[in-house]
Each structure stands twice: as structure tokens, then as C-alpha cells.
Amino acid sequence: MALVILGVGGIVTLALEVNYIHLLAVVAGNSAYAFSLMLFTFLLGLAAGAELARRLLTLAPALPLALAWLEFALAAVILAGVYLWDGLPVYFASFETHPFARDFGGREVVRGLACFVAMFPPAVMIGAIYPLAMEGIGRAHAERPIAALGRAAALNTAGNIVGVLAAGFWLLPAIGALRSIQLLAVICTALGTMALAWTAWRRRPLAWAPAVAVVALLAAQPRSLDYTALASGANVYFAAQAFGRVIDHAESADGGLTTVTAIDAPGKEALRVLLTNGKFQGTNDLGGEGVAQSGIALSPLLHTSARERALVVGYGTGMTARVLHDAGFAVLDIVDLSADVVRLANRHFGDVNDGVAERAGVRTHITDGRNFLLLQERTYDLISMEVSSIWFAGAAALYNREFYALAKRRLAAGGVLQQWLQLHNIHPQDVLYILGTVRVEFRHVWLYLIGGQGVIVAANSPSAAPQAAYVERIERAEALGPLFRLHGGSVRRLSGMLLLDPGGTDRLLAGFKLPPGHWISTDDNLYLEYATPKGNVLDGDQSFIRNVEMIRTVSARAASAPDPVTERPHLARQRGFAADSAP
């Protein structure tokens, strides 16, 4: 009996952890700090459970009865915890004006409390069940306890491995987090029933009271989570965002919770928004956000006329891939970590991407962008990077020196790298670290400000300097004609959105009297991984203006650089300016 609990329980333990981390990444955040809080809470719960087991053993209860009730208790806290998930986004949003959540430390305390409430109770039960089951193994094999305990531990570890694989690759994408954790609760109930049936207590009705409570909780379970609440984005900025109602969603270990929402407007077609864990990825608003989305894709074409191979890392709504394909690239590789993002974007944003993923010469790869470049040797005329926010755990690896060195090796002669640079909710020194890290591998670094977004263009060839011939090549692409209207009828307008040229970038990095090479983030120091999440406490508009004005003060183009107010539309509306793009 104890061996069954250890083996099957090992599966339940890690499958449950996968599902809880998945849900907490949605409602509590998915920065490196958030995942640290989750792990801390789980380990703390296991330690508390081990202490509970020690105390239970001193009371000398019937071991099978103790195991049975602990399994019932685990099932009960799993099922009761289901009611927490829909309420946690409201809890985070309630701190919007609370002074405690105005700094990074206060917000992490709030996240830690959310992790504690969700993960600590089941972790305590798991932490108590393991030593009690191991005690049962030791008692049953008193003649050779060490060998028996070793085999039992190996069985439990094997169960852990199966649980991780089953939850991540099968349960979560197939039936979602809610049904997964409900299924795990049923398995715990079955283990408790088996353990109780092993004892003489099975004839006492009172012994089955915990089982009855679990069945009642199971009968009262909701049919679905409130995905509109979960995708509200409250965990990111501690305020609910007006993303509308969820009309489609997908869950997976690699993509988290991917949702498509609809924002209804009287007399108009609903605006659709693509989100990952409540974080904005793009919309079908071609007249608003489309200015930034298309401009980001067009800007590197001002620096090259080559049209053989292009790589897009980060599919989003598919706008960048569409622009590059329409610009004439013969081969286009699309790389995204999440199959859910690609599938939902193709399903709901055809008006943005025009079905580019199905066109000739276009190949889609579901994998990590950095690994893709590392494991193949093809070279590209253009590498376009539009991953989600840099503060997502692991995303900063695409802003470290080692990545830029790899990208440089995968660029053809005269090749160009383009990368989105977040300028809102980020500290000025983090912007400098990003630009400095790019600059250490690329001799020529430009920075554009398009639709309120920063766009880095980097190259090592002098031929990458903007030329009239490159503009003419773009404007000869008839398929791009509808997008030119978003930019005043001509792509030439983008040339006036240059914030830094290579000389200005060098002066910016040298303007703080720090040693050469100071502004570099690497896989060893992981500066950006741990610094950028702290920017989420900043006011988005104020931090945007602060960063742009910091850049302008040391830029050779300061007098003619784009004005941050008119480039950030909701600021423009507040101050009475006209704006033609969305933030």
C-alpha cells in the first residue's frame, strides 16, 4: 500500500506542481522573482509537512489511517483551492491605488502571499505523506530497511518524472489546468480510499467523513475557470486592463495561457486582442496598433535591399512575418516558443497576417529562438526579434551578449538584426544595458521610435546605412501598398523617426563616464533577467518620457528626434495632441 502511495503520489506531486506553477504564472506573474516565490512556497510547505509527519508519528496513530486522511486532506485543499484562481486577479487589481504596492518589494510580498495561499496547503499534505509512507516501508521490511527505502525513494522519483511529463505534455494542453487538478484530486481520493480500506477503521462510518467532504467538494466544482478574469493583466501592473472578454484560449506548459479577447464597440466590429498570461501581444487594429506593428517590421528594410532569407522570432499576431513576406523575401522562417500563439493568431488575426504562415517559402518552427539559431547554420539577410516583454522569465536571454554574438554569426554579409526595445515600464539604466550589449557585438546600432515603441536596428557592414535605393526597393513591393497608408502614404516617413544613429548610440553609452564595456548583460551576470521586472512598478507613460528624453539629451539628433508625447498616444490625448497610433 505504501509503495502505491509513493509511486502514484510521486506522479500527483509533480503534476500538481506543474499545474499550480502554470496558473500562478497567469495570476501572480512569470518573472524570475515570481517563479522563485513559487519554489520557495512549495519547499516551505514540504518542510512544514515533514514536521507534521514527525508529530503524527509521536502520537502513534494507525499509519494507514493517517495516510488515508492526509490523502483526503490533499484532495480537499486541491478542490477548495479551485475557487481561489478566479479571485486572485481581483485581489491584485485591488492594490492599484494602495501605497503598499507602489514599490517592487511591496508587490513581491503580495505575489508571495498569493503563492502561499495557493501552494502552501497542498505542499504541507504532500510533505507529510512522503515520510509517513516511507515509515510504512521501513516497518514492513525491518530486516533490510535501507534497501527497501532506497527502492521506495526510486519509485517515488520515477513517479515525479512521469508526473512532470504527463502534466506538461499531455494533461495541460489536452484538458486544461482546471480539469487536470480536479483529476489529480480524484486520484488522491482513490489513494485515500485504498489506504483506509487497508485498516480496521474501514468499518467505522466516522473514518469516512473526510472522504464524504471531498466528494461534496467535487460535486460543487465549477465547470470552467473565468478566463476573462485570468487574462485581465492585473498581475502585471496591479490594475485590471481593458482587454475585453475572452473568446478563445489555449493552455500549455510552453505557452502558458494564451487568450484572444474581444472589445465590443457600438456600431463597429469587435477589436480583438492577443494575450499571453494577461500580457498584451497585439491587436487587429490596423489603424492604431498596426502603425507600430508594421513600422517595426518595415524599419530594418531601410537598411538592406537583400531579400533572400529572413527569420522572425516571435510570431505575435503575424504582422511582421506578413510584412517581410510581402517585401519579397524568398525564404521566411518563423520561430515561436508557443504553438498556441501561432494557432490562435492564424485563427483570429487573418486580417493582420493575411495567412502568411501558409504561403510558399514560409516555414514555422515551434521552438526557442536562441536554440533555433544555435542548432542550425543557415544565414539570414534579416533577423527580426519581437519577443514578449523582456521581464518574462528567460526572455532576457535574447538580450544578452551571447545571443547577439550568435545572431551575428547567423547573419549573411551585410545582414541586419532588428529587435523591439521596450521603452515603457523600464528603468533608464536597463535601456542602456540593452543598447550597450547590442553595441559590443555590432559596430552600427540605430534606434527608431515608431508608434511609441523602440526599434533597434544593428549591423556590422557600412552598407547597412539607410539609402534612398533601399526605400525605393520597399516601395516597389505592391503587396505593401495598404500598409504604406498607415505611414502617410510612404515608408520614407519612418526615416524621420530615427532617435539614434550609430554615432548617437556611441555618445549615449559613453556619456556617463563609466568604464568601456560597463553596459553589458551576459549569461553570467544575468543583469537584465533580474533588473527588468522591477520596472513594472513604474508609471508607463512617465517612464517612457523619461527614457526618450534621457536618450535625446545625448543624441546627435536631439533637436529633430520624435517627441515622446506625440509618440505615446494616450499621453497625446491627455495633453491635447493628435496621434495616429496606439501605444
Task: Describe the structure in your own words.
The protein is built from 23 helices and twelve strands. The longest helix is centred in the first third of the chain and has 53 residues, at 145-197. The protein folds into three domains: 2-227; 234-280, no CATH class; 284-575, Vaccinia Virus protein VP39 (Rossmann fold), CATH 3.40.50. α3 packs antiparallel against α5 and α16 (428-441) packs across α19 (502-510). The chain is an alpha/beta fold and 583 residues long. The protein has helices at residues 2-27, 32-58, 63-85, 88-93, 104-140, 145-197, 209-219, 227-230, 234-237, 289-298, 319-326, 339-348, 350-353, 369-374, 401-409, 428-441, 468-475, 481-484, 502-510, 527-531, 540-553, 564-567, 569-575; strands at residues 245-252, 256-265, 268-276, 279-283, 309-313, 331-336, 362-366, 380-385, 411-421, 444-450, 453-459, 498-500. α15 links the parallel β8 (380-385) and β9 (411-421). The chain is elongated, with a radius of gyration of 27 Å. Strands 7-6-5-8-9-11-10-12 form an eight-stranded mixed beta sheet, sandwiched between helices. A four-stranded antiparallel beta sheet has the order 1-2-3-4, with helices on both faces.
